[in-house]
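Subject: Sanity check before I submit

Could someone independently write out the structure tokens for this chain? I want to compare against mine line by line before I put it in a report. The sequence has 54 residues.
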Amino acid sequence: MLRASQPRAAIPGADGVHTVALVIDEDQHQPLAEYCHTMLNRLQEHYDARAQAR
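---
Independent answer below. Compare away.
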């Protein structure tokens, strides 16, 4: 998905971390949103499982 993006800026930060501003191709918005949604749901499931194990 990032292959179809257009980088606009890269801002160096602390410890070698950079913030990158980019424009995502319009056709890639939906797949990227679905991926992010899936990732956040899995993280929530993992967090809930760890919280119950304690």
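---
OP: Matches mine. For the report I'm noting this point. The first strand starts at residue 6 and ends at 12.
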